[in-house]
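Exercise 7b. Backbone tokens:
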């Protein structure tokens, strides 16, 4: 083959937990374009590569699927693209079905279903290194002959682990297999294939069984899960603190330097220092803490622990109207409610899926973290508890725990209100434990960094500049005695809103920050920074850190009330839009908005009034 060979369109498919996405990252170098399929919110990931012989290959990483008998939107997308029936997506030239070599009993069934489509296809036996360690012997030639499909072996997490697949892509075009009979017993065929080509010393790994005996214990397992979650929130404060201080110092130095260059242009200087650096710079300081949170989520996902946590919590979640399968979408919502809501597509039952969608916004997304961190650092002393724990980390854990408990309570109420209360059995694959791949973890963190910086450089910048404009104009009258912002449009809006929020302790500055915060939670922090920078009556006050400023001007009751508000606060507009798209219902959007606003106001009212009474 030469470099002039035609470009190839490849679709990667496979069961969840087969290592398909790791193989995609290995092939494309992690340089992926992520978007949604037209008309649906199912994620599509696309990348490109050049084979060793110079062939251009477009790779599509399709959603994981257990069967072509689709039970969810994810599986429908995979089925339709593989069959060449998806509007707007050309049929793939080649299907690469990725299998977990340690779990062929489950994964071979999907291969046989795909073979029935009669399209060019290659089988990639992934995780072959793990299979060898477990003593699993696979006669690749015999399996290839029995299937009638080319088979290559891969180890996606190792350098050069996709060499055999790349060589196959450089080879001659794979001929379509003869379509299988539709009514054949797939389970019988899988048993025959395993008997002819696979030797396993035991059905499951002795290591997996030993770990599961501990982490799946009905009492000890829950204690371990609680300890893991507690450790995460302790680490968010403890591990990220040095990096956060470094970012803050860097942002402050840049702001001072740029501001010094603009002394002859006061209005532009105010925009840059009081708007952009005071606003966006404050948000940027929280990137290390967000990355620490994502680090733990990615490690738990890569290790194979998350499905076990879902299994552990199934009984508890069923009692409140959810299933264990809702655990992973809800955990994803700790990062952002949008992918969490999209992940509910794996829940087959429509009523369970809708309940999960409605409670997902109560999970504490990473966009709330800047608000929590700002207020906790300003009002909660940094001291040790029992000589081990960080008091600030304990408060952060309490806020996350409050979100979880409130989600369970809301789900329980929804269950009481709906008519159908029939039981649903949880069927879930428990993948083998794996040592997380550092490369995949780093790629995930890098992707999250780019997303965060994109938000900072996009919507947050636009909203910060808009808020600066509203806070700076019109100019104060000649005989003004108050800070200029008091006479501005933003000041007038804040004063108008203040009576509504006075019972929960919010001043007009907080009221202003709530509005842009509907577009993105992080904007609340940048908005407060901008408002207080423009509210300052002296250069020294303007230079003070936001945390120091609010600690001096707010009461503890106000700070705790704002924390309570953000436990339940109405979601950002993007999340509401996803609820609309996923449920195809404006009614569900209004229900979510109304109950979240009511809960946030009630919680803040109780916290504020009780704190005032006690202090």
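Sequence design result:
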């Amino acid at each position: 083959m030469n470099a002039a060979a035609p470009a190839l369109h490849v679709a990667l498919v496979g069961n969840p937990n087969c290592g398909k996405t790791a193989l995609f990252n290995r092939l494309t170098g992690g340089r992926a374009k992520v978007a949604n399929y037209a008309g649906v919110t199912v994620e599509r990931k696309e990348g490109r590569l050049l084979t060793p012989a110079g062939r251009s290959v477009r790779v599509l990483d399709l959603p994981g699927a257990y069967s072509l008998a689709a039970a969810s939107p994810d599986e429908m997308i995979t089925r339709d693209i593989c069959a060449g029936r998806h509007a707007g997506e050309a049929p793939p030239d080649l299907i690469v079905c990725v299998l977990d070599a340690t779990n062929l009993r489950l994964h071979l069934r999907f291969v046989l279903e795909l073979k029935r489509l009669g399209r060019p296809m290659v089988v990639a036996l992934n995780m072959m290194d793990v299979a060898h360690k477990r003593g699993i012997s696979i006669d690749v030639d015999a399996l290839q002959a029995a299937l009638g499909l080319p088979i290559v072996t891969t180890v996606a997490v190792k350098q050069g682990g996709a060499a055999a697949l790349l060589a196959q892509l450089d080879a001659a075009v794979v001929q379509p297999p003869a379509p299988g009979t539709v009514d054949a017993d797939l389970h019988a065929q899988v048993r025959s294939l395993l008997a002819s080509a696979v030797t396993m010393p035991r059905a499951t790994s002795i290591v997996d069984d030993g770990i599961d005996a501990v982490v799946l214990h009905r009492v000890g397992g829950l204690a371990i899960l609680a300890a893991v979650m507690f450790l995460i929130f302790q680490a968010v404060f403890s591990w990220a603190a040095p990096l956060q201080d470094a970012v803050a110092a860097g942002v402050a130095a840049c702001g001072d330097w740029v501001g010094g260059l603009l002394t002859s242009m006061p209005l532009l200087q105010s925009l840059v220092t009081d708007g952009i650096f005071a606003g966006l710079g404050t948000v940027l300081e929280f990137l290390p803490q967000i990355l620490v949170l994502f680090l733990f989520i990615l490690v738990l996902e890569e290790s194979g622990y998350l499905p076990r946590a879902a299994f552990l919590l199934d009984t508890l979640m069923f009692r409140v109207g959810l299933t264990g399968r809702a655990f992973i979408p809800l955990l994803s919502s700790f990062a952002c409610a949008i992918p969490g809501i999209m992940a509910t597509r794996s829940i087959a039952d429509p009523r369970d899926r809708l309940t999960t969608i409605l409670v997902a916004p109560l999970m504490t997304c990473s966009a709330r973290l800047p608000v929590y961190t700002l207020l906790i650092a300003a009002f909660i002393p940094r001291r040790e508890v029992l000589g081990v724990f960080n008091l600030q980390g304990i408060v952060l854990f309490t806020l996350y725990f409050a979100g979880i408990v409130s989600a369970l309570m809301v789900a329980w109420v929804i269950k009481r209100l709906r008519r159908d209360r029939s039981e649903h059995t949880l069927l879930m694959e428990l993948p083998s434990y794996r040592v997380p791949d550092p490369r995949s973890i780093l790629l995930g963190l890098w992707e999250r960094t780019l997303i965060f910086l994109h938000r900072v450089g996009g919507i947050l910048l636009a909203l910060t500049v808009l808020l600066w404009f509203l806070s700076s104009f019109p100019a104060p009258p000649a005989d003004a005695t108050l800070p200029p912002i008091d006479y501005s449009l933003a000041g007038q809006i804040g004063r108008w809103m203040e009576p509504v929020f006075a019972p929960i302790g919010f001043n007009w500055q907080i009221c202003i920050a709530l509005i842009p915060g509907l577009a993105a939670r992080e904007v609340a922090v940048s908005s407060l920074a901008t408002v207080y920078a423009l509210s300052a009556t002296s250069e020294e006050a303007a230079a003070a850190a936001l945390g120091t400023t609010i600690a001096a001007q707010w009461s503890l009751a106000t700070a705790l009330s704002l924390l309570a508000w953000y436990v339940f606060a109405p979601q950002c507009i993007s999340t509401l839009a996803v609820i609309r798209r996923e449920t195809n219902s404006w009614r569900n959007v209004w229900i979510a908005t109304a109950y979240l606003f009511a809960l946030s106001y009630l919680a803040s009212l109780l916290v504020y009034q009780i704190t005032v009474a006690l202090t």
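Instructor comment: The first strand starts at residue 8 and ends at 14. The two ends are 80 Å apart (CA to CA).
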